[in-house]
TrEMBL record:
WD repeats: 266-300, 312-343, 497-523, 524-556
Biased amino acid composition, Basic and acidic residues: 38-52
SUPFAM superfamilies cross-referenced by the UniProt entry: WD40 repeat-like
Superkingdom, taxonomy of origin: Eukaryota
Repeat found in the keyword field: yes
Organism whose genome encodes this protein: Priapulus caudatus
Family matches, as InterPro entries: CTLH_C, LisH, WD40/YVTN_repeat-like_dom_sf, WD40_PAC1, WD40_repeat_CS, WD40_repeat_dom_sf, WD40_rpt, WD_repeat-ST_regulator
Cross-referenced SMART domains: CTLH, WD40
Residue ranges of every copy of the CTLH domain listed in the record: 87-146
Entry protein name: WD repeat-containing protein 26-like
Amino acid sequence: MHQANGGPDIQVQQHNGDFVAENTRNSVENGACASNGEMDRHEDERLKTPMSKSDQDIIRLIGQHLRGLGLNRTAGQLMLESGCRLEHPSAAQFRQHVMDGDWEKAKEDLDELGRLVDEPEGTQKMNFLLLEQKYLEGLQDGRMLEALQCLRHELTPLKYNTERVHELSGYMMCSTPEELMQTAKWEGKGPSSRIKLMEKLQSFLPPSVMLPPRRLQTLLLQAVELQQERCPYHNTTVNTGLENVSLLMDHMCSREQFPCQVMQTLNDHCDEVWFCRFSHNGTMLATGSKDQTLIIWDVDMDTHQLKHRRTFDGHSYGVSYISWSPDDKYVAACGPDDCSELWVWNVETGEQRVKISHSPEDSLICCSFHKDGKKFVCGGTRGQFYQCDLDGNLLDSWEGVRVQCLWCRNDGKTVYAADTHHRIRIYNFEELSDSQVIQEDHPIMSFTVSESGRLALLNVANQGLHLWDLQDRVLVRKFQGVTQGYYAIHSCFGGVNQDFVASGSEDNKVYIWHIRREQPIAVLRGHLRSINCVSWNPALPSMLVSVSDDATIKLWGPAEEHRQRKAQANGAPSSD
């Protein structure tokens, strides 16, 4: 990198929001002109076709990117032909001195740049960062006396971040450069640490003086992320960089990559299937039916197929609600309104951990485990609301609360519960306190909460699906399309970052929405009767399961994957 001269003879003019210098001795690399004649010629051309501020910004962004790739002469030629300057000449000189480790000259440059720093204490902070690097490099090189002088007579007099100064003084006890780098969590003297220093220093300078680091890449990444947010079918792991995306076209996922195709139909239940839920790790699925059985399925993470693992039977009223323990070791099963029993099964051994039945007058229709997995809550519409341990011992009870559905919060002590008064209230069993969170105008048949604990998805009788913000206690969105009467239909969040919402419907269809859209992005047909519950695999964003009164379980996946499997089954090579 060539150094740009920036002495007192520089006179800087503002031209269309950018700097154009009259000093012709600056290097081509930093965007200056080679001669007065060339400068005049290019100025004449610019005056004929004035360049907008946005055009100048784009040229500077391209120039910065080219220089970052090491194409310094190309960047200089671009600046020369455009008449723009990549950065203020004093800033270019400052950068060079920092990268060379010439701290005295860098400090002189900073004194000149100080008038351009917007933040009142910005110059002091920049000085501190410079001297910190100078001090650390002195220690690494073994120049202890110079480092001590820097600490006592330069860093300390700044009277800034004294806690950090004390920390720096402790580094003098390090006996080797390796110990210093490890203790200070510093990369050591060299281009890498100086580039990071320069990026910190740049943050104090306005962009008209020096562009923020990698500004073009930042803008492009923001554009890609915005396109992904607006893409209705984007359901893949979010990339942290630009390496795996094309900038030559707008981002758009195909519906073929979305779970809209029946991949597998299971008929092991012999009556209406009322509920389904994947385990927290996504490796198992539990389904409950009117046929008095609870079936556990293994999810093959390679073939994306469900395989029967074990069946738990003897649920005399049927299984209409299921909850997994946080470690996926246990599964709790509840029945419909007239069921007074609750079962907790050990999924690994197949043994019954406990069966709860406090009174034949009870109605235990829903349950949820606390985060620690050592206790759970359960309740029903006859006024039972219990907190129990894994041995079935009653720890606490709340009298007279008619619970339709409930959900334990991650704090381990409070519970959301929907009651028969069209409300969701929050209950604290430790303090025996409660407060209202949501009020609807119609019965809340079921609800579920997002992983973040911020959003709740409510299936409301004769209204459909409502999305609420639990923190702000406001109705965010009413999703359109689903047919919801007075039957209990269970919906779910799902997909990457839980960007999607799915629900069954009484019109025999599965509806899927993007969480930011009211209209469905997909309507799945395949069941013959009402769909009672859907569940999205938390580990496989492209896997969705639905269960129906037609006694079937349907596994949904991408059509693209279905075609590949079909081709492989027929002996044909699969296409990527």
